[in-house]
Design goal:
With 183 residues, this protein is of the alpha+beta class. The chain contains four helices and seven strands. A hairpin with a 5-residue loop joins β2 and β3. The radius of gyration is 24 Å and the shape is globular. It starts with a helix and ends with a helix.
C-alpha cells in the first residue's frame, strides 16, 4: 500500500469502529407515546378568559397534588408541587400565595356556586371529564400555561389531560413545603 492511503484507511476503519461501538454501548431512550395534546375548545368554558395571559399554549408538567378544592366557578383547583425541571414556571406570587406550588385548574368539574351568571354560562351544557386523583398523587398535567392577572400567579388553566404518574403518597414534598414556611 502507498504510505498516504494507509492513514486514510486507518482513519476510516477507526471511525466505523467507533460509530458502531458507541451506538451499541450508548443506551437509547425507549420509544414513548406522543405527548398529550391540548384541547383549544376548553377555552369556551373558561370563566373570564381575558384575565389569563397565555404564556405557552400547550405545556406539560409533572408534580404532586398538594390540595384539591372546587372554586365558585365550578373548576377543580389542584395546586401541585412541581418536579425540579418545572420550578422555573413558578413566579413570586406562586411562592408567596400558593406555598411555591403551581395552580392547576380543571374546568367545569362541578356546578358553579356564584351569584354571577358568567361562570354558570361558561359551563353551560358542558361537564368536565378530567379525572381528579387524591392529594399526594404524582401526576402529569398538560394544558395552557397562563399568568392569572387577578392573582398574579402562573397556572395551567384549562387542563386538557391529567394522568397519574404513580400513586405514591409524597410526605417528602409536604415536609419540604413545611420547611419553606408553607402550611
Amino acid at each position: 500500500m502507498r504510505a498516504g492511503v494507509r492513514p486514510v484507511l486507518i482513519l476510516i476503519c477507526l471511525t466505523a469502529l467507533l460509530s458502531c461501538s458507541s451506538s451499541s454501548l450508548t443506551p437509547t431512550a425507549p420509544e414513548t407515546a406522543s405527548p398529550p395534546q391540548c384541547i383549544p375548545t376548553l377555552w369556551n368554558h373558561v370563566y373570564s378568559p381575558a384575565r389569563l395571559q397565555i404564556l405557552d399554549s400547550c405545556r406539560t408538567v409533572t408534580g404532586v397534588i398538594m390540595e384539591t378544592h372546587v372554586s365558585d366557578d365550578g373548576d377543580t383547583v389542584l395546586p401541585i408541587a412541581v418536579d425540579a425541571p418545572y420550578v422555573g414556571l413558578l413566579n413570586a406570587e406562586n411562592t408567596a400565595k400558593l406555598n411555591g406550588w403551581l395552580q392547576i385548574e380543571v374546568v367545569c368539574q362541578a356546578n358553579a356556586r356564584s351569584n354571577d351568571t358568567a361562570p354558570i354560562l361558561a359551563c353551560q351544557d358542558f361537564a368536565g371529564s378530567v379525572p381528579v386523583p387524591p392529594v399526594g398523587t404524582r401526576v402529569r398535567v398538560t394544558g395552557t400555561y397562563v399568568l392569572d392577572h387577578n392573582h398574579g400567579w402562573t397556572e395551567i388553566h384549562p387542563v386538557s389531560v391529567l394522568t397519574i404518574r404513580d400513586a405514591q403518597q409524597l410526605a417528602t414534598k409536604r415536609t419540604e413545603a413545611n420547611a419553606l414556611g408553607a402550611r
